């Protein structure tokens, strides 16, 4: 009787070990989004031939805990001039890990894309945006922003959204102002709104 009980317990232990080893052999793949603590928008005015005019200038947003997880990011107000055209570049950084996320986004350009929404770009837009990344990639780290000459308002909101793991071939996903971005799948690594003033 004692031998039977021992054999039963050994068999039960082996079955439990087998189940636990199966679950550890097949981990669920994770695709974590980027942790972003700092965003810098750099504007360079350009003329009708695409030549730089004057000096570039920056506007930043930051949160030491991460813009998507922190409670109160510090966001500067973007000020642009009516009727001007600018090249806008975006830099993103993770100060917690001391990591330049911009390079990672560029390397994974097939998995990332910025969208430009808010009242500045949709509805009765005061700004227009066109992707201008190197090699014709639709990414949004660089783009051309044109300010309306006679905008309907001098105040708006620039919502900047970075999507990760989206279907870039989804109909409409190539539009930088695509309000149906969620239909293309993926998730948001960044969703931040800069106040905008036009002078």
Task: Summarize the structure in words.
The protein is an alpha+beta fold and 199 residues long. The protein has one domain (38-198). The chain is built from 2 helices and 11 strands. The strands form 2 sheets. Strands 1, 2, 3, 5, 6, 8 and 9 form a 7-stranded antiparallel sheet that branches. The chain has a 4-stranded mixed sheet with strand order 4-11-10-7, with no helix packed on it. Strand 5 (85-94) and strand 6 form a beta hairpin. Residues 7-31 have low confidence and may be disordered.
| Residue share in β-strands | 35-45%
For the biggest sheet, the summary is: 7 strands, antiparallel
Mean pLDDT reading? 87
Helix content: 10-25%
Order of helices and strands: HEEEEEEHEEEEE
Instruction: State the low-pLDDT regions, or none.
Output: 7-31
Total helical elements: 2
Rounded to an integer in angstroms, the radius of gyration calculated over CA atoms is 24 Å
Overall shape: globular
Instruction: Count all strands and give the number.
Output: 11
How far from one another are the termini? 92 Å
Total domain modules: 1
Structural class, by secondary structure, is: alpha+beta
